Structure formats: C-alpha cells, structure tokens
Amino acid sequence: MSNERSRMPSPAPDRLAVSRVAVITHGKPEVIGDAPARLRRVAEGCGVQVAAEDDADLAVVLGGDGTMLRALQRYLGTGVPALGVNFGRVGFLTSVSAGDLEPGLESAFAGRYEVLDLPTITATSHDDTVTGVNDVVFTSAVLGRMALMEWSVDGQSLGVVGCDGVIVASPTGSTAYNLSAGGPVMAWGTDAFVITFVSPHSLHVRSMVLGRPHLVQLRNAAVDVPIQVIVDGHTAGRVEPGGVVEVRQGDSFATLARVPGTSFFTRYLETFGTDTHH
Questions:
Q1: pLDDT digits (tens, 9 = 90+) for 1-38
Q2: Is position 65 annotated as part of the catalytic site?
C-alpha cells in the first residue's frame, strides 16, 4: 500500500452502499447474546448479503477491543474496513454501542461511514517479520529477571536500559499498554510510532515518538535472559541473548470504519475524560 495514501477519514458521501458483509464475533458467544441474529435481520432488511470473511465490502465486529484487533489483523492490507459494535468493557476501537446496533448498522450499510487507515508496527529478526496493529512488546522471558535492552535509532546507539520491557506502539496502541506505562497519546491519523520503556531502571529514560523514515534496533544485551515478543497481546516469539530486532512502521495499514458522530476524540473523552463539572 502506498505511503501516500491518506490517513484521514474519507467523507461518508463518497462511499457506496454495502452489498456483502462479513461478521467477526467474540470468542465467547454468551458475551454477544443474540447480536448475530439482530445483525442478520438488519442485513436482510437492507438487502445486504452476509458473506464469507474473504468476500466482503465491510466487516462488522461484534465484541470489544480484543475482537476488533483480531479483525483488523485479519483484514490487514486488504482495504476491507472493520466496523465495531461494542460488547466489551472499553471498546475504544468500536463505533456503535450494543444498544444502537440496528440504527448504526443501517447507517453503515447505506454507505454512511468513514474509513481511517491506521499505521502498523513491524518487527523483523533474521527472516521472521511480525506486524502489530496496536503494539509490539518486548519483555523478559524469565519471571523476576530484568530485561537489558540496547536501543538504537538510525544506527545511533542510545544506550543500554535495564527495564521490565519495551513497548513499540502505533497511534492506535498509544492508548493501550503504552498509556499505562506513562507513554504519550497519539491521535489517530498521526503517521508515527512511539517507544516506551516499562519500569526503566533509570531516571533519564523517556518515551520517544518517531516517524516513518526511522529505523529502531533493539538488541538483547543480557547474558542469560531471553526476551519474549508479544504482538497485539499474543506471544509471537523470542529474542535470545545477543539477538537483534529491527522495528519500524509497517507498509500495510489496518482499515477502521466509523459511523458519523464518533471520532478518536469523542471516544477518548468517553473513556479517559474527567468530570468537568467539578
């Protein structure tokens, strides 16, 4: 996918009505209840075919942020947007509340939705490459042992840091583990990524926001402690002592659909906002 592709939402009037929709559901059916049947009734009423996952104009996700990440990974780089109906606890990536499923989907099926391209993170070690929509996290693989990571940007070593781990997050993932670890929030549409150290054994280590041209190298500087690699919350491999991983922004984008009236800032306020009346 070209790097010149706009990362801002495309205006809803330019979109065509949906003809085929795929459905991605939470792993526990009891969480979403009769939502699949409700979706099928809306689809039937709108003349929309419920299709196989690989033959759809739009993917409707019934679940929370974990299910959304799975769907965004599933359609990574395909251009098929994922629209979330929230049946989770937070649902930051979702756009429609469970109670508004019917009007929200009717609007989306009529083509009234925006699309936002979300940058990804890739991590490469030898010939093995993994891609994260939220983040790629590096942690000690030995319980109770500190990770020792040397980090470099564009070939310049920035030192060795003892820490519990390193988070490399996209703007999408900046409000997840990165935020909990004290890293900055990046609004969706920002073409950048952030590196945040988890519990660094230093008073001088700070998060760093970098852009698409930058290449980060992370070297496991420990003698006997391997590093576990976690992509979007799932274990993806290990980096042995002395091993090096190259991390940068990915060339593919995750494609998020949102109905009008919702945005990063409205979801941010709903999730993290404080009561302004005090």
A1: 333 343 444 444 456 789 999 999 988 899 999 999 99
A2: yes
State the residue range of the domain holding 35. Answer: 12-113+259-272
Residues 108 and 171 in one domain: no
| pTM of structure | 0.89
Q: Look at the chain and report how many structural domains it folds into.
A: 2
Q: Which of 65, 117, 135, 232 is flagged as catalytic?
A: 65
| Radius of gyration of the chain from its Cα atoms, rounded to whole angstroms | 20
Same domain, 96 and 171: no
Both 90 and 125 in one domain: the answer is: no
pLDDT digit string, tens, across residues 204-242? 899 999 999 999 999 999 999 999 999 999 999 999 999
Tell me, yes or no, whether 241 and 141 share the same domain.
Answer: yes
